[in-house]
Amino acid sequence: MGNQSNKSAQSDSEWRQQLAPEQFEVLRKEGTERPFSSPLNDEKRRGTYVCAGCGQKLFTSDMKFDSGTGWPSFHSTIDSACVTRRDFKLLLPRTEYHCANCGGHQGHVFNDGPQPSGLRYCNNGVALKFVPDEDD
Ligand code: FE
After folding, report:
1. Which residues form the domain of 127?
2. What is the mean pLDDT of the segment spanning 3-12?
3. Most buried among 29, 49, 93, 103, using CB within 10 Å?
4. What is the pLDDT of residue 1?
């Protein structure tokens, strides 16, 4: 504990100090934000989406598409940035994914995304921070 570089070992109370309540609910408790609540839904600039918990780069703007669901959506992730896990919270199995660095929950991945990946990473906007490209 107290090791700043080892985010995966942080306690809930440490995370609570670092995150806004709505970020804590999603990242550490696997909550889901209300659809159409995130300004990142409409973010169209070029840049990088990083984990709001630890800053790890998860997606680029090239991976984003408009799914119409009300959550920021991506057809792929930066290599090795995310880890998936089966989730039975709604009885039907879904595939949860989280930041590979800090373990923070990001969203769920579905098989109805655009080709060629065919995947739709349905991400909570509150779990991300957008870093625009400097020349944009
Ligand atoms: Fe993270």
Report:
1. 11-132
2. 73
3. 49
4. 39
Total domains in the chain come to 1
Q: What was the pLDDT predicted at 52?
A: 98
3 in a domain, yes or no?
Answer: no
**How many Å lie between the centroid of ligand 1 and the Cα of residue 91?**
27
CATH code at position 117:
2.170.150.20
Residues annotated as part of the active site: 122
Neighbour count for residue 133 (Cβ, 10 Å): 11
10 Cα–ligand 1 center, Å: 12
Residue 99 lies in a domain: yes
| Identity of the amino acid at 47 | G
CA dihedral 4, 126, 120, 111 (to 10 degrees): 80
Residue 6 lies in a domain: no
pLDDT in tens, 81-123: 999 998 887 777 889 999 999 999 999 999 999 999 999 999 9
